[in-house]
Amino acid sequence: MATLNLRNLVKRFGDVAVIHGISFDIDDGEFVVFVGPSGCGKSTLLRMICGLESITSGEVLIDGDVVNDVPSARRGLALVFQSYALYPHMTVYQNMAFGLENLGTPKAEITARVSEAARMLQLEAFLQRKPTALSGGQRQRVAIGRAIVREPKVFLFDEPLSNLDAELRVGMRGEIAGLHRRLKTTMIYVTHDQVEAMTMADKIVVLRAGRVEQVGAPLDLYNHPANQFVAGFIGSPRMNFLAGKAAIMGGSIGVDVPGVGVIMTHASADGVAPGAAMSVGIRPEHVLGGRAGWNTVTGEVASVEQLGGMSYIRLAGPDMTAQLPGQTRLGFGDTAEMNLPPDALHVFDAEGISLPRSWTGAAPAELRQTA
Amino acid sequence: MANIAKMLTATRGRGRWDWTDWASYGYLILGVCIMFGPVLWLAASSLKSESGLSEYPPSLLPTEQVRVSVPGYASPLPLFTIDAGERAGKQLAEIRRIGIQAQMVDPADPKAVIRVPVDGRTKVMRVHAAWDNYTDLIAKFNFGRYLWNTVFITTIATVLTLLVNSMAAFALSKYRFSGRDAVFLIMLATLMIPPTIVLVPNYLIIATLGLTSNPWGVIWPAVATPTGVFMLRQYMLTLPDDLIEAARMDNASEWRIYWRIVLPLSAPALAVLAIFSVMWRWNEFLWPMVVLSRSESFTLQLALNSFQGELTTAWNYLLAMTVLTLLPVTVVFLVLQKYITQGIASAGVK
Fold first, then answer.
1. Which of A253, A292, A287 is nearest to A272 (CA)?
2. Residue to test with chain A: of B244, B248, B249, most A Cβ within 10 A
3. I want to staple B269 with a disulfide (CB 3.0 to 4.6 A). Which of B42, B235, B306, B347 is the partner?
């Protein structure tokens, strides 16, 4: 049970800064996911929190105490490594007991805690086996068990599922989420997979190149991305972007996209100069098929993926993907018409910053949810 | 047994003998003869008596000339068979040889001295394993003492070598500190210096410390070996850093990380170094000879050397002792060799 605060954290390797002043707070019992493309510094940030990497400047606070100079073992954290880092020469039992032995915990208590963790993770049958004799999923559970027995204040996971196959990953995702529900401990989870982030997190921290792009609940990030990077990173398949120039229409912005025409949006035109570079974004699942009164895009079909329940249609010129419900008769080379509903559009300025909407309506996904 | 038979008769095809089979078996047998022949010759010769060793032509089996005691003569006389003449086929003993004639005597009739030309007779040979080469060695010489000295020096020096070298290797492979690479390079550079060059300085240090004629004087200078540090460091570099960080998160002290994680995982490299160290210490000659001056502190190698006098060499004892000296190293190698090929470190990590 712990809160965690980061204050202006900076990490430099020599002259190269990899973390540029990161600050945010994590509440007690929260499940926080750090997500970002590889090389964005998310693992480095995690290692700074657990003390395996020194802090160049800034502060890490656990339960209000600055722990910059506290050795990692005394911070009350437990880290699950991407490689599991199980001690290959020890049995599963010894692997889980090692940390407690080092703390001088009485034997009886070690046995009790290890068997409790083994029961929780269904590892009882494997306690006397070496890690080599276990499958990937079992090794992962041992690594988690090793963290649980220490009863840490905060659990840290460093891309724990990236070595598992797709099916196991979905299963383990559920197990970790279930573990969080049972233990109610603060957990920090690092991944590059936005699906893991969306499904597990209470709060997502999106990182890019050592900077925080946005912090928020999964659906907030989906519905109200702060900038073009977050908009593109969260959601699968990724959001379509059409670049163009601003044309003011009443209080809202229209974006004049070359080859498409003016696309009407609900973004507020306050302080926007006509002709400024703009791009408009729409998620494939919000694109509607067919023609409507406005915002119709016509293009040649470049590829069609039929999944049965839905279809992905990719248009060439303008390059965009649409996810349409059901099955489609469209084929390669056909001309298709797509309609971009204004309330589903995101507008970004030349710096990629998201522009506010002129009317305070709900985002389209939220509308559908209530429907 | 069946496995060995299967291995020794394995062929390239199914049962048929291809020319490549002949070639490879021929090559392997040649290799066995070249490698193992001298050892076999040594072992066979160690069972020959002193006179058997000086026989010409030499034989593989331990043979010697038969000697008989003849009344009226103090020592047993060598026996010959006469080839030709009136006494052809008779066995006579030689009293002495004068030029091309030999004075001989019939053991059945010790009174009469018979003259025989030396090229008209053949030696009477018999196969005889001189086990007393070994029993004498243990009874007459202080063999047990030399063996103990050598075992003591070898064991202690090997244990200390493994300990000290692995600690250095751990620091050089897993800690980041300024000057680490420089330290490592300087250590490696000492490989270029022949041991004979540091012999005198080393001796001066040992003499100052009062360790001459003391087994510790042989042990200490040999404990830190650049080869060992290099070998262990290269192996430890392959141990994942994650394991050490995991142990650090698990509240393990640096000593416990070294003792409980790094050492057990370096077992294959340690076994190789142990074999090397045992062979080095066991076979070491020059340094013990310089340090150990009293015969009761001699190692086996020094004792071996003492059989080789300036004027005479007790070849039969020398050979027997060489065999005894070879045995322990061979056993150590056989026991530890399976570790060489065994890699257990990368098992638990992915």
1. A253
2. B249
3. B235
